[in-house]
Amino acid sequence: MNQQEFTVRLEQIKDFEFRVKFDSFDETNLLMDEPEPLGGGAGPNASRVLAAAVGNCLTASLLFCARKTRTELRGLRTEATARLERNAQNRWRVQEIAVAIDLPASDDEKPAQVDRCLALFEDYCVVTASVKRGIPVRVEVRGPNQERLYESQSD
Question: For labelling alongside 148, which of 15, 51, 77, 113 has CA 20 to 30 A away?
Answer without folding.
Answer: 51
